[in-house]
Amino acid sequence: MYFKSLKEKWGITSNVQLIVIFVVFGITGSLSVRLGKPVLDFFQLDPQRFDALFMGTFLYWVLRLLIIFPVYQIFLLLIGTLFFQFKFFWEFEKKILKRMGFKRLFKDS
Fold first, then answer.
1. Burial 34-67 (b: 16+ CB within 10 A, else e)
2. Is the pLDDT of residue 21 over 90?
């Protein structure tokens, strides 16, 4: 079953922990999308500013993703901590950052 392989891959044994992890991912994703507009408004980035540019809509969405991505990562750790899953999400974050080229920031254990 798919959940069994996820539990093995993530190194967890409890179905409850798996459900909590899914809930944390869901809350974090929803919160990041919801807070995306205020963050972009803070930086005064709205889609109308990109209308005159070549591929303006595409550039707007790329920029939005680049801004929201770090916000998502921070929320993932914060919300994971609230659900007592900091260790899991910290290891998850380190994997993501290592794959993005930040290997030297983390010592391999």
1. eebeeebeeeeeeeeebeeeeeeeeebeeebeee
2. yes
